[in-house]
Design brief:
phospholipid binding; 8 helices; FCH_dom; Substrate Binding Domain Of Dnak, Chain:A, Domain 2; F_BAR_dom; cytoskeleton; AH/BAR_dom_sf
Length: 440
């Protein structure tokens, strides 16, 4: 886990560094540094300058954030992992060596115990046998007993030594094992506290960037409050005006009649402006619809369709298997359900109500359709009693399912929720009936 988090902070720092470089490049954009910007009115020029300044400061902030991630988080992880592995490695090597010695001593102790046990059993047997035999057999048993007594002294000494060594090793093992367990618990608590502290520093760093961004946004808003379109236009007119005098169109001079050219009068412009702009309330500017939609989307969280990709950029086999199982178990329309529980319940209730209404409509249509068929059959039976074959044999009767619903107009939920309208009943009264067959 520690190595994975270290790599995660490394990637996070690279993302912030790349973002800061792109922001700094954006602050040097032509639209913010062109010569035409200096010709803008005072209010709009201040707003453009504030955008440029805020972009540069934002780039600097994210560059500092990237450096903080590298030194305060990624670097600390490297140091912590190395020191942790060093402490654990020395203690673990001691315990593993002691455990190996303990296993070897147990094997030697068991062999010595079995030899001593067999010699003791043989001694007891020979002593008992010596009491039961006489003569030359007694001498043989006595010789064997003497040999066993000499051997049992060696096996007893060996067994005592191995038993003493095993006891000392077990006592040492118990002590080292307890110390190692305490050390491992201390390392685990240190790991949890370290990860917690790094997450805390990460949250504080992100929060500091957000505060700095909010301060820059406040500067932008303050500059925009001083930007007034009408005042800026009047200021620009005073700065680059060409005068308020204008002339009328020259009149026609008929030189054939001896008319002389008259001077063109110069007038002073004093017009009343007629504007088609809508009056806006600049005291309180509400959030625009795109911003409101963005805020709602942020509160709702990521959608269920967004895949979670590991830092390497590839999905793991477990994720692919989980994805395949989800696609087989759940329908596609389930992924489009809202995240809110209340919205999901309302959506499910509305869908159930629509299905019930469709079923009721289908039942009513089937009932009317069946009544119409019955009435037509009854009328045809009255008009054609002398015929053995009627038109009802050739009339199409839609099949019905066991539950009484019409198969043609029943809604098939498994076929992309398509609805099939019932067939239009045929009115036989609008068609001429065929002539009865001639009598035989």
């Amino acid at each position: 886990m520690l190595d994975d988090l270290k790599n995660w902070y490394k990637l996070r720092a690279e993302i912030e560094l790349d973002y800061s470089k792109k922001l700094f490049k954006l602050s040097k954009s032509i639209v913010l540094n062109s010569a035409s910007t200096s010709l803008e009115p005072a209010g709009l020029k201040v707003a453009i300058d504030s955008i440029k300044t805020s972009t540069e400061k934002s780039a600097h902030s994210h560059a500092e954030l990237s450096g903080t991630f590298k030194t305060a988080l990624y670097g600390r992880f490297t140091t912590f992992i190395n020191s942790r592995d060093l402490v654990k490695k020395n203690a673990q090597a001691t315990v593993e060596k002691l455990r190996k010695n303990l296993i070897d001593l147990r094997v030697l102790h068991e062999k010595a115990r079995r030899k001593f046990e067999s010699d003791a059993i043989a001694t007891t047997g020979y002593v008992t046998q010596l009491q039961l035999v006489q003569g030359r057999d007694s001498d043989k048993v006595s010789n064997k007993l003497d040999k066993v007594n000499m051997s049992i002294k060696l096996t007893e000494k060996e067994y005592r030594n191995h038993n003493r060594n095993l006891q000392d090793t077990i006592n040492d093992w118990n002590t080292q094992w307890k110390l190692f367990c305490d050390l491992i618990q201390d390392l685990e608590e240190d790991r949890i506290d370290f990860v917690r502290n790094t997450f805390w520093d990460y949250a504080n760093a992100i929060s500091a960037i957000c505060v700095a961004e909010d301060e820059q946004c406040e500067c932008i808003r303050q500059s925009l409050e001083r930007c007034d379109a009408s005042k800026d236009v009047r200021s620009y007119v005073r700065q680059a005006f060409t005068g308020n005098e204008y002339t009328l169109a020259p009149s026609f001079v008929d030189y054939t009649k001896g008319e002389l050219a008259r001077s063109i009068p110069i007038l002073t412009a004093n017009f009343i402006r007629t504007s088609t702009r809508k009056a806006e309330d600049t005291t309180l500017i509400p959030l625009s619809k795109p911003i409101q939609g963005m805020i709602q989307a942020i509160k709702a969280g990521p959608s269920l369709d967004d895949p979670i990709i590991n830092p390497a950029g590839k999905t793991t086999p477990w994720e692919n298997k989980n994805k395949d199982s989800k696609q087989n178990l759940y329908p596609d329309n389930l992924l489009t359900y809202p995240l809110n529980d209340h919205q999901y319940l309302d959506h499910t209730q509305n869908q159930n109500q629509n299905q019930n209404q469709n079923q009721n409509q289908n039942q009513n249509q089937n009932q009317n359709h069946n009544n119409l068929h019955a009435a037509q059959n009854h009328k045809q039976d009255q008009n054609h009693n002398h015929t053995s074959t009627t038109l009802n044999d050739h009339q199409y009767i839609p099949p019905t399912s066991p539950n009484g619903y019409n198969e043609d107009n029943h809604t098939n939920n498994n076929n992309n929720n398509k609805k099939y309208l019932p067939l239009t009943p045929v009115n036989l009264n609008d068609r001429p009936l065929p002539l009865p067959p001639p009598p035989i």
